[in-house]
C-alpha cells in the first residue's frame, strides 16, 4: 500500500467510473488496480477537496491557481498514487493547487475486463464469463494471422531511424516544411509575426547512439519477429479498447442505464466532481485560474471535461496526446471561440524519438518489443483510424498535417475567428545528451516539471530543414 497519500489532492476512480478510497485496496493485491473500495457518499469526499481548494492562498494577482493532471494509459493505480504523493509538494511550491485525476488504466486489469467481464459494451462485474477461454483463443488466432502485417509495419518504422536513409524522411520533411510555412505566414521570411508559435528541437544523436541502437535491434530481432506481432494484437488492441471504455465511464456509468431509477443527470464519478468544482468556482469565478494538463490517454478525459463544463480554463496542455486530431478539433475550436483568453499548448516528442522509443533506453539492452512510442502503436495497430484526422494528435506528423484547419491559417484565413495567438506547439529535441533537458520517451513527460510554463512554451529558436536533407520538399 502507498503511504502518506495526499487525499485532498487526489480523486481516484475504478473501471466503472466510481469514486474509490485511495487508502484501501480491499483485496490486498500486490498489483493494485482491480478492487479498491468504492466510496458510498462521494459528496463528502468532494467537499473535502473543494474546501481545500478554497483555502488555497491567492497569488499576487488575486487568483487561486489550480492544476489538474490526468495521467494516461498503462498506469497502475499504485503508481498514480505514488506520483501524486511525490509531486504534490513540488506543484504546491510552484503556486498551484494540484488535483490528480487517477483512473484505472493498467494493462492487466484492462485485458482481464475484456476477457472475463465486458460484453457488447456492458460490464458484468460480478459474473466470470465462461467464454473467456474462447475470447483468448480468438485473440491469439488474430495475432498469428496478422503477424505478417504487423511485422512489415514494424520494419517500416525501424527503417525510418536508420541514418543512411536520412534523405527519405518524407513524413518528417513534409511536416517540417509545413512548420516553416506556418512560422513565416506573417510575411515571406518574416518570423517576427508568426502564424503560430512553433519550435522544433534539434536531432543531436551521436554515432555511439546509432551503434547502440542498431546493436540492440539486431540482438533482439528474433524476439521482435516472433513475439511482438502476436503479443501486440493479442493483448494490446482489446486492452486499448477497454482503457478507452474506462475513460468514458468517468462521465457516464452503467448504473444510469441498467440499475436503479431513471436519472436526470450523469453519474460518472469525475463528472460529479467537476460539477461540484464548478459550483465552487461559480461563487467567485474571477478568483480562479485553472490549468488542465493531460498526458497521453489523459487527453481523452481532458477533452470530455472541456466539452462538458463551461469553466474558464487559463491553460490547456496536451502532452503527447493520444486523443485523435478530430476529437481535439471538435473540442478545442468551439471552446476557443467562447474563451479567447485560453492558451493551448501541444508538447510532442521529436519524430525520431517517437519512432525509436524502446525499452532499451531504460533497461539497458532489454529491447524485445517493437520500437515506437505508444502513439506509434495506437496509430499503426491498436486503433482503426478511418482517416488521417482519426490518428493521435500528439505525434508531430499528424498534428502538422492537420494544423491548416486551424481558423485563421492558410485556407481558413477568411474565418471569422483567428486562433493563431492561442495555440502553441513545442517539439522537443532528440539525443541522449538532451535527456535531462527534453523527454526522449513517451513516458518521460512525468519526469519533467510539467506544471511550469517554461516547459510548455516553444523555444525561441528552431532548427531548419537542411538538417534533415529534405531535398524533395525544400
List keywords for this structure.
474 residues, alpha/beta, two-stranded antiparallel ribbon, 16 helices
Question: How would you summarize what this structure contains?
Answer:
41% of the residues lie in helices and 12% in strands.
In words, what does this structure look like?
With 474 residues, the chain is α/β, with parallel strands linked by helices. The chain has one domain (39-75, 90-103, 127-232, 282-468). 41% of the residues lie in helices and 12% in strands. It is built from 16 helices and 12 strands. The strands form 3 sheets. An 8-stranded parallel beta sheet has the order 1-5-4-9-10-11-12-8, sandwiched between helices. A hairpin with a 2-residue loop joins β6 and β7. α4 crosses α8 (228-249) and α6 (170-183) packs across α15 (396-402). The longest helix has 22 residues, at 228-249. The protein is globular and about 60 Å long.
